[in-house]
Every structure is written in structure tokens, then in C-alpha cells.
Amino acid sequence: MQEILRFYSRKDVQKEILRFAKEREIGVRFREAFGKRPDILQYPSDVQELAKQGATSFHISVERWKNPLDLKSGLSRKQLDDLRKGFDLVIDIDSKFIEYSKVAGNLIVEALKFNGIKNISVKFSGGTGIHILVPFESFPKEVNGQETRLLFPEIPKAMAEYIKYLIKPYLKKEILSFSTLEEISKSTKIAIGDLKEKNEFNPFKIIDIDSQLISSRHMIRSVYSVNEKTNLVSVPIDINKIKEFNLKQAKMSNVEVSEDFFQLEKSELEEAKTLFIQAMDFVQKEAKVEVKIKRDYEIPKIAIKESYFPDCINKLLGGLKQDGRKRGVFILVGFLQHMGWDYESIEKALLRWNKKNYEPLREGYILGQIRWFKAQPKKILPPNCDHESYYKTMGIKCLNCKCKNPVNYVKIKLENTKRGKKK
Predict the structure, then answer these.
(1) Within a domain: residue 207?
(2) Distance from first CA to last CA of the chain, Å, rounded?
(3) What is the CATH number of the domain that holds 139?
(4) Are 364 and 72 in contact (CB under 8 A)?
(5) Is 308 helix (H, G, I), strand (E, B) or coil?
(6) Domain membership flag for residue 284
(7) Which of 287, 289, 377, 383 has the most CB atoms lying inside 10 A of its own CB?
(8) Beta bridge partners of 30
(9) Among residues 165, 150, 154, 155, which one has the least CA distance to residue 134?
(10) Which H or E run contains 377?
């Protein structure tokens, strides 16, 4: 703890954390738990004073706010929109191994450059991941007649999905150039069969870039903030030297502070316009495919009982003992909608579920996610059973699963039950 306090006592560290925190909500972590929210930083010395009180890390919102202290749990979409000044694109790359994250990070930077974006910032997460940021100042002011600041989280989700699509074939090729499937399987402890999709290696089985977790009041670790688990610092990375980054650079004693990270004035207005257009076209095409999947399933008018749910959902409802709570919210709301549950019932179920987890999420986060689902023009299916970032990595995947989606399992079970009754 003394080493962390000495680090946050550095004037250059305080200055850069404060600069990055401007107009943002701050989450202060005290080893195992977060302090009060909302919170802000007003002076450089706030960083040191909080560290003296036991603060170990500082987290900042992806969104920028008119007054972050006006935020509170339970705000409607309109109330959040009224408070929001803007948001940055933050692509959160996570993998068990930093080498895989570096490969993905380098390809994403190249994809952004290809789409005309020049003002790109990259930083180490402090664990084994990488954060890539594009400031709001690079975005067009309006999209289809709507203020861009109002299009959160739809726009960043669309951009993240499109970028994943762009880099996937190159990511697959590059990873296989220095690791065989057998080596990947051994190091990640994922069976070779589970590393494949349609009989081909899927790099997103080992690298997580999950756009579905982007939500209002979503936070990332601040630049120059310490990771409590690793004691490493979230330091900037030169966008032209991502592959050369070494974890030694993130040791507190080795950190050299630079003022070049995330400089808003370097952005050119609408430099991200091409990416916006391409990303929106991409997700609209994907949505058309999704509609075809949904047509053969009619949402029941009477809520389906839990006895018809697949094992993965029932395991999830029993509470999580490890990471995956936010993914759990996304799965459960999508699934329960398709089971004919009304939003009041879904809310009650998720709040009960939250108490069973190893560490409860903020109630406001759950309510905000339910509001987001409710506001969508079409009901969103839960992720498919073979999705690389969900069921299996959360420890809830059904044994011998033969269904495409948990909703399909219920549909088949209901049909079998009806046939049995007819006999």
C-alpha cells in the first residue's frame, strides 16, 4: 500500500489523472470495493488525499457529463441524454495473455487508420488487456439528423462490432503464425474443438472485445491508475509500438508520465465519419439476418416457467462465483423477454439474482440495462450457445449442448411437451 501511496503522491501522475477525469464520473476503488458514486476529481491533490484514505485505483466514465454529480441510479434514458455532453469510443481488448491483446490492439489501430482516424490513443489496462480510445471530438456532430451525443450506447456498439468484423481474418492469421491450435488450447485450457467455429479457428474465442457490455455509466481504469491485482499501472502505449510494449514499462517504479495521451485538440472534426457510416451499414445488414432467425419463434403471451429453462440459464440464475455478472445481465434480460416475462417480473428476478452473486452489481446498472432493452424496437435474443465470450467462459455452459440458442432449447422442449400431451 505504501508503494501505491508514493506513486499517487507524484505531481505528474496527479495532473494526468485529473486531466483525463475532466467532465467524467469517477469511480474510486478501495482495494475490494468502490466508494460512493457519483464522484468527481476537482484538484490534483484529490488523488493523493484519496490514496491516503486507502484508494487503490481510479476509474473514469466513457461518457462525458454536464455535471457528473447530477447522476444517480434509476435515471431514464431521456434524463441521461440531457446530462450527457458526449462520449468517447473505447475498445476494450481482453485476453488471458498480453501478447494476444497486443496483436489485436495493433490490428485495431490499423483498421481505425484505414477508416481515416488519426487521433488514436492506446493504453495498457493494468492487467492483460489493452484500451484503444478515439475522442468524441473526432465524431460527426449529427447522424441521420440526430445529435451524436444522444446515440449512446448504440454508436460505440456498432463501431466495435464492425471493427471486430474487419480484423477477424487478419487476427486469426497472425495468431496462428506464432501459436498452433494445440499450443493455444494448452495455454488457455480451452479444448481445440471449442476454439473453432464452422470448423475454423475463431480468434475471438481467446480474445474478448465485447460490445454488449458497453452501457451508460460504463467505466474503464484511468490512465496512470494502478491495478490492485497486478500492481501494474495503466500506462499509455505508443500506437506505433504496441507489439513492443513490455509489462516492465507498467511497473510503478518504471513509469514515465507523458502528456501526449488523449489530446482532444489533435482531433479533426468528422474524421470518424467514414467509420460511423460503415459501422451503421454493417449492423443494419446483420440485423436483417437476425430477423430471419427470430421469425419462427413467437414470444408466448403467458410467461414460461423456470422448469422449462436450459441448464445454462438455471445455473446462471443460481448466482455467479466468478467474473461475468454484466454478461449475466445481458443473457438474462434477453432470454426472459423471449420467455414472455414482463419487465416488472424481469426486474424482480434480476435483483434477486444479483444478491446471489459473489459480489452484487450496482442496482442502478441492472435497472439501466433493463431500460435499454425495453427501449429497443425489437427484442434482442440472448447470445448463441457457442458465443466465445459467454456461457463456457462463465462456467455455466450446458453439457452436450446441441442448441443454437437457449431460446431454441425452450422452443423444442415446449413442442415435445405438446406432442406428448396429444399422444
Answers:
(1) yes
(2) 69
(3) 3.90.920.10
(4) yes
(5) helix
(6) no
(7) 383
(8) 33
(9) 155
(10) none
Q: Which residues contact 403 (CB under 8 A, 6 or more apart)?
A: 310, 385, 409, 412
Question: How many whole angstroms from its chain centre is CA 84?
Answer: 19
Of the candidates 376, 416, 216, the one whose C-alpha atom is nearest the C-alpha of residue 290 is: 376
Confidence of residue 273 (pLDDT cuts 50, 70, 90): confident
User: Is 33 found in the same domain as 103?
Assistant: yes
C-alpha dihedral (177, 179, 181, 185), degrees to nearest 10: -160
Q: What is the pLDDT of residues 9-58, one digit of tens each?
A: 999 999 999 999 999 999 999 988 899 989 999 999 999 999 999 999 99
Task: Give the global pTM.
Answer: 0.73
User: Do 308 and 266 reside in the same domain of the chain?
Assistant: no
Q: Cell 476503488: give the residue.
A: 29
- Give the span between the Cα atoms of 178 and 173, in whole angstroms: 9
| Alpha-carbon span 325 to 394, nearest angstrom | 9
* Residue partners of 156: CB distance under 8 A and separation at least 6: 62, 87, 89, 90, 211, 214
* Residue 274 grid coordinates: 467514414
Look at the chain and count its residues.
Answer: 423
Give me the domain span that covers residue 238: 2-278
